[in-house]
């Protein structure tokens, strides 16, 4: 899914189309409108939607001692390296 919406009630949600993402963001604003008599939630201004261009993927995982170059170094269990990679449509 290449699109997202975010609001303070639902957090981040992923969508297949920009129309779905925008509608979900607007629904979050509309829900806040219902409770506006109590005052707007201050986080309503953080509502957003957009396109996800890249996501984090795990590209390397190995024992920490191998990464550190010291078989006796047990500071951590694993070394993991992540990168941002373009989102591919599923």
Provide the fold topology.
Elements: E1 3-7, E2 11-15, H1 18-34, E3 48-51, E4 54-63, H2 64-68, E5 78-86
Antiparallel strand pairs: 1-2, 1-3, 4-5
Please explain how this structure is put together.
- The protein has helices at 18-34, 64-68, and strands spanning 3-7, 11-15, 48-51, 54-63, 78-86.
- 24% of the residues lie in helices and 37% in strands.
- The strands form 2 sheets. A 3-stranded antiparallel beta sheet has the order 2-1-3, with helices on one face. Strands 4-5 form a two-stranded antiparallel ribbon.
- It folds into 2 domains: 3-51; 54-86, no CATH class.
- It starts with a strand and ends with a strand.
- By secondary structure, it is an alpha+beta fold.
- It is elongated, with a radius of gyration of 20 Å.
- The mean pLDDT is 90.
- It is built from 2 helices and 5 strands; from the N terminus they run ββαββαβ.
- Strand 1 and strand 2 form a beta hairpin.
């Amino acid at each position: 899914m290449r699109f997202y919406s975010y609001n303070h009630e639902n957090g981040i949600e992923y969508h297949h189309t920009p129309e779905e993402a925008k509608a979900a963001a607007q629904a979050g604003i509309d829900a806040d409108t219902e409770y506006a008599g109590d005052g707007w939630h201050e986080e309503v201004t953080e509502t957003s939607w957009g396109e996800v261009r890249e996501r984090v993927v795990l590209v390397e995982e190995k024992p920490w001692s191998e990464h550190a170059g010291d078989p006796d170094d047990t500071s951590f269990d694993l070394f993991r390296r992540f990168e941002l990679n373009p989102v591919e449509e599923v």
